[in-house]
Amino acid sequence: MIEIKRLPDGSHQCATELPAPVEAVKKPIPLKVRRMPEAFVVETMEGRMQGKAGDWLITGIDGEMYPCDADIFARTYDVLSDDDTA
Fold first, then answer.
1. In angstroms, what CA-CA distances link 33 with 18, 45, 73, 81?
2. 10-27: buried (b, 16+ CB within 10 Å) or exposed (e) per residue?
3. d(Cα 67, Cα 58) in Å, to the nearest integer?
4. What is the Cα–Cα distance from 21 to 69, expressed in whole angstroms?
5. What pTM was computed for the model?
6. Cβ–Cβ contacts within 10 Å for residue 44, how many?
7. pLDDT tens across 11-48, in order?
8. 3-state DSSP call for residue 85?
């Protein structure tokens, strides 16, 4: 088993040489998202997770739900409809 450790500076360290990386792009899969007006808790596949007011609640392709920080959402997703509470 290959063990990859995350270092305090955010980089990663591995005693084994990893395979060379290749480039990939996420498939453009439309998801249902809701901008939450207040703090919330949601049961996810990984357990209970909390979101803050203004964070997004995402419903995945298999119906799973999970929170996404507003800043991360803005860097990762484009909202397809005019209503940002889709």
1. 35, 17, 10, 11
2. eeeeeeeeeeeeeeeeee
3. 6
4. 27
5. 0.70
6. 13
7. 999 999 999 999 998 888 889 999 999 999 999 999 99
8. coil
Task: Tabulate helix, strand, coil % of the chain (nearest 5).
Answer: 10, 35, 60
| Cα–Cα distance for residue pair 84/86, rounded to 1 Å | 6
- Joined together, the tokens standing for residue 60 give 């995945």
In this prediction, residue 85 has a pLDDT band, given cuts at 50, 70 and 90, of: very low
For residue range 54-79, list pLDDT tens digits in order: 999 999 999 999 999 999 999 999 99
